[in-house]
Design a protein that fits this description.
The protein is α/β, with parallel strands linked by helices. The chain folds into two domains: 12-127, Tetrapyrrole methylase, N-terminal domain (Cobalt-precorrin-4 Transmethylase, domain 1, 3-Layer(aba) Sandwich); 130-250, Methyltransferase, Cobalt-precorrin-4 Transmethylase, Domain 2 (2-Layer Sandwich). 19% of the residues lie in helices and 19% in strands. It contains five helices and ten strands, in the order E-H-E-E-H-E-H-E-H-E-E-H-E-E-E. The chain has helices spanning 28-36, 73-87, 107-117, 129-136, 191-200, and strands at 12-17, 39-42, 58-61, 92-97, 121-124, 150-154, 181-185, 208-213, 221-226, 242-247. The strands form two sheets. Strands 3-2-4-1-5 form a five-stranded parallel sheet, sandwiched between helices. Strand 8 and strand 9 form a beta hairpin.
Length: 274
């Protein structure tokens, strides 16, 4: 289809967060965009049941999985541009990403490709895996008096040319002690190495750690450890998308020990103004 100026008229692209697991964890807006789509480019971790929300669309699988054969990023970018051209003005292409598109979802590269092609796009947020993992294990990531900061990190790092899928390459694993709660994505195959890096970063070996795999799915698992014993979780969570919580947010809720509220002034001591 051609615009009046003679240039190609592109459709829009919506980057939609599918949520962390089952189809009913997608947002209402995400479901609406799927219902409007002519083409859907979907990730490996998106629930196949989401196809029921877009039976009219052509579905293309462009999934990425760590340490496995994956669709290259340049190929995905080119496919997005081609699909937006094919649907034409008024059409919609959905790029469906597991979790939230902005959190370890390679969103930057795809937004850049859309900007270079002059394609209008939007980003529809989704529930990221860290929040789903904390919810399923009933571990609040922030804790009153002890957990005032949270850091998200990936255990997978880029160590490959751009034409190779970044998640299929293993780079140097890094860990830090920059927040009260540290959350590590894609750590399932590197739990022993992660434990060693955490100790090097200054975390005590008896620090609580919680490992959650397949968060948001009926077969989700979680197990409790310390940093010293974190590597033992590898077999239990093998081959499953895994999130690791370390620090304040990994601590189990103890009904016998209420939250620390000593730092909060009582109403009689607080300065009140009218």
């Amino acid at each position: 289809m051609k615009a009046a100026s003679g240039t190609t008229a592109f459709g829009r692209v919506a980057f939609v967060g599918a949520g962390p697991g089952q189809a009913d964890l997608i947002t209402v807006r995400g479901a609406q965009r799927l219902a409007q789509a002519s083409v859907v480019l979907t990730d490996a971790l998106a629930d196949p049941a989401l196809r029921e929300l877009a039976p009219q669309a052509r579905w293309l699988h462009v999934g990425k999985r760590g340490f496995a054969d994956s669709t290259g990023q340049e190929a995905i970018n080119a496919l997005l541009v081609r699909s937006a051209r094919e649907v034409g003005a008024g059409g919609l292409v959905v790029r469906l990403k597991g979790g939230d598109p902005s959190v370890f979802g390679r969103l930057e590269e795809e937004l850049q490709a859309m900007a270079e092609a002059g394609i209008e796009c939007e980003v529809v947020p989704g529930v990221t895996a860290a929040l789903a993992a904390a919810a399923s294990a009933k571990r609040p990531l922030t804790r009153r008096g002890s957990g005032r900061s949270v850091s998200f990190s990936t255990a997978m790092t880029r160590a490959a040319p751009d034409h190779v899928a970044a998640e299929a390459a293993s780079g140097p694993l890094r860990a830090s002690r920059s927040a009260d709660t540290e959350v590590f994505y894609m750590a399932g195959k590197q739990l022993g190495a992660l434990a060693r890096q955490l100790v090097r970063a200054g975390w005590p070996t008896d620090t609580e750690a919680c490992v959650i795999s397949r968060a948001g799915w009926p077969d989700e698992l979680h197990s409790d450890h310390t940093i010293e014993t974190l590597g033992r979780a590898s077999m239990l969570h093998a081959g499953r998308p895994t999130v690791v919580l370390v620090g304040a947010g990994a601590r189990p809720i103890d009904a016998a020990q209420p939250p620390d509220t000593d730092h909060i002034p009582s109403p009689s001591k607080a300065n009140l103004s009218t």
